[in-house]
Amino acid sequence: MSNLKLCQGTKCHTYNTQDRLKGSKENKTFQTRRRSSFYYGQGNFCSLNCQNDWFNDFGSKAIDHFGRLTEPKHLTEDNAWSKSYDYNGYRNLPDVYYYYNGVTKERRPLTEQQYNDSNYTLNTN
Ligand SMILES: [Zn+2]
Fold it and tell me: Do 84 and 40 meet the contact criterion of CB atoms below 8 Å apart?
């Protein structure tokens, strides 16, 4: 029981589904969902609805707490590389892996190993 997590959704208990209805016969209440794990919001919410409820109640405060953007961020050619590939399986040919720079439109070949290596990057920051 102690390993179970509670959904952090601020209105989770108000969604009256049968699985939230708990308690003995005369004492039933709809309760916040309790699970060993959740799929949403880094494991904090039982549903996207509950995640959105939390954000509607606390999102602006959280942004102010952790730092609101006051200037636009810039994606420059130094950090605009993204991995991609052309699927050629339908022609029985090997897939072609490449890095694509969204700013300069340059395309550089990648090996499949580099494509799958999450540490391999051309981006400098
Ligand atoms: Zn919930």
Answer: no
Q: Which pLDDT tens digit goes with each residue over 55-70?
A: 999 999 999 999 999 9
CA distance 29 to 14: 10
Can you tell me the distance from the alpha carbon of 89 to that of 100, in angstroms, rounded to the nearest whole number? 21
β 81-86/21-22 pair status: unpaired
How far is ligand 1, taken at its centre, from the CA of residue 100, in Å?
40
Non-local (6+) Cβ contacts of 29 within 8 A are: 13, 21, 22, 23
CA of 27 to the centre of ligand 1 (A): 21
Whether pLDDT at 2 is above 70: no
Q: Distance between CA atoms of 45 and 32, rounded to whole angstroms?
A: 10
- Tell me the one-letter amino acid at 42: Q
Q: How far does residue 30's CA lie from ligand 1's centre (Å)? A: 11
Q: Which pTM does this prediction carry?
A: 0.68
Q: Mean pLDDT over residues 34-61, rounded?
A: 97
| Mean per-residue pLDDT, 27-33 | 95
